[in-house]
């Protein structure tokens, strides 16, 4: 079975959606065997430990280049025989070395309908603030493969979410997570894992 690593930086709500899908048997073509956080103390680590998943903290060291960090990350992933990577609120942009090492094997979920409100600098509540500021009536989430352009990889799935009168960035963020991110990410993780498993068995 394909070993999946989930990369996190914060609370881990998308990680929890993946862990729940795994427990329910809807994520079955791969298994989450490692959760890597970019910082100590992220609650996502507690979620992983509660589910019996091995964890690691890999923080950027002072003055460390993205390339050097990427080499350390790939070494960690390879040491755990990871075949697929899911970014679930990971706040660092992956170096090209990582992307080449896992080309076509890295998924990301972004809280907008790409190409709206995406790219460098658009993450977390910033995305929802931008959507509300622009006055859009519909937003949503996108799951895509990762390439060397932030949020620029091939789109795999999108789901629209209505913007409601009186929304704040926080209420909109929660609804996008509940109605789009937590549904799309496990679904597309299973699809990619199944495809990768099939290609390795062929």
Element layout with pairings:
Elements: E1 2-8, H1 13-24, E2 30-37, H2 43-50, E3 54-57, H3 66-79, E4 84-87, H4 96-101, E5 106-110, H5 125-134, E6 138-145, E7 155-162, H6 169-201
Parallel strand pairs: 1-2, 1-4, 2-3, 4-5
Antiparallel strand pairs: 5-6, 6-7
Q: Which whole number gives the mean pLDDT?
A: 96
Biggest beta sheet summary: 7 strands, mixed
Which percent range fits the helix content? 40-55%
What are the low-pLDDT stretches, counting only 5+ consecutive residues below 50?
Answer: none
Number of helices: 6
**Based on helices, strands and strand pairing, what is the structural class?**
alpha/beta
Total beta strands: 7
What percentage of the residues does DSSP assign to strands (E)?
A: 15-25%
The value of Rg in angstroms is: 16 Å
Summarize this entry quickly:
This protein is an alpha/beta fold. The protein has 6 helices and 7 strands. α1 (13-24) crosses α6 and α5 packs across α6 (169-201).
Would you give an account of this structure?
The chain has 202 residues and is of the alpha/beta class. Helix content is 41%, strand content 22%. It has helices at 13-24, 43-50, 66-79, 96-101, 125-134, 169-201, and strands spanning 2-8, 30-37, 54-57, 84-87, 106-110, 138-145, 155-162. It has a 7-stranded mixed sheet with strand order 3-2-1-4-5-6-7, with helices on one face.
């Amino acid at each position: 079975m394909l070993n999946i690593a989930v990369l996190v930086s914060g609370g881990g709500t998308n990680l929890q959606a993946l862990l729940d899908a795994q427990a329910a048997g809807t994520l079955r073509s791969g298994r989450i065997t490692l959760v890597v956080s970019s910082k100590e103390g992220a609650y996502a680590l507690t979620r992983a430990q509660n589910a019996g998943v091995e964890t690691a903290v890999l923080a950027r060291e002072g003055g460390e280049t993205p390339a050097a960090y990427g080499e350390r990350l790939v070494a960690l992933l390879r040491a755990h025989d990871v075949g697929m990577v899911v970014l679930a609120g990971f706040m660092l942009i992956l170096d090209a070395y990582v992307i080449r090492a896992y080309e076509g094997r890295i998924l990301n979920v972004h809280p907008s309908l790409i190409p709206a409100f995406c790219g460098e600098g658009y993450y977390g509540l910033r995305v929802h603030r931008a959507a509300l500021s622009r006055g859009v009536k519909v937003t949503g989430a996108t799951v895509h493969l990762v390439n060397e352009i932030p949020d620029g990889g091939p789109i795999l799935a999108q789901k629209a979410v209505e913007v409601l009168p009186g929304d704040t960035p926080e209420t909109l963020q929660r609804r996008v997570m509940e109605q789009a991110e937590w549904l799309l990410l496990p679904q597309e993780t299973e699809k990619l894992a199944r495809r990768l498993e099939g290609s390795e068995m062929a």
